[in-house]
Amino acid sequence: MKMVKSTLALLTTASLLGLGGLAHAGATLDAVKSKGFVQCGISDGLPGFSYADAKGKYLGIDVDVCHAIAAAVFGDASKVKFSPLTAKERFTALQSGEIDVLSRNTTWTSSRDSAMGLNFTGVTYYDGQGFLINKKLGVSSAKELDGATVCVQAGTTTELNLSDYFRSNSLKYTPITYDTSDESAKSLESGRCDVLTSDQSQLYAQRIKLAAPDEYVVLPEVISKEPLGPAVRQGDEEWFDIVRWSLFAMLNAEELGIDSKNVEATAKSTKNPDIARLLGAEGEYGKDLKLPKDWAVQIIKQVGNYAEIFERNVGKGSELKIERGLNALWNNGGLQYAPPVR
After folding, report:
1. Cα–chain-centroid distance for residue 87?
2. How far is it, in rounded angstroms, from Cα 75 to Cα 298?
3. Taking the model in full, what pTM does it have?
4. Which domains are delineated in the chain?
5. How sure is the predictor about 238, in pLDDT bands with cuts at 50, 70 and 90?
């Protein structure tokens, strides 16, 4: 999800944080190693991205990004502690140093990447805002929603996108805001609102949690660009690089045909220079990142390549059954692309 703050609020936050908001800048890796784990901010419950199963184990794409960082730093993907955060809480938690990285279906925007003191490290999932309705409403397009009551999560850019879309199409609507996505979905299910709007990935996730998911449908319109990805505090390029290249390692692995099953054998036998550099068989690229030589091997072995984390969490191996679409690799019709290790 995505948070909106006025310019005044941003300035107020910055002044309150002062230098304290960047207290850990330049020292995050040392702090992480000292405490022995990565503190990762995630969603407070979004299937496919970050949620707790019946045993309390956190699962999802965003969760796997956190595990990948831990695998790179410690050689142990389990060395992560999770902080479930609401949309309102997430940025303050990162700014204040409560968490080391925010991996919480958060949209990369210009204001967040500048005025809020954050840096986005990449895109884990290309998304866009859509609409979920009950089929009995008899609507097949968002342009038929004139006069609708719309549930929307507070403190997100979803509210602004909703207003822009209805205004530009000369439609009227009544918004009902909630603090959490679960509250919004329950309101749709109870009939208090006609439609629920959010990122399409979140709509698919909320749909499977409804009592009768087959009675609901996501409309075809996508009304915004929502590149979702991890964020870190500004001022610590060392930590920024580690988080960024943990994602890039999984993307490059998929492109090069390396997965969790073949990575160890490939690292020992490869004659491909691109693979050799990625897996530490050639060069000192781990050292450049202040990571062990086999940092990428540990990520791929313990967490998987990008295809593996996509398919098991939101793709064909999950309940969501979301197609790769824009999240396919660049050489397969999608947008996912990682620079080479060299």
Report:
1. 13
2. 6
3. 0.85
4. 7-126+227-236 (3.40.190.10), 129-224 (3.40.190.10), 240-332 (no CATH)
5. very high
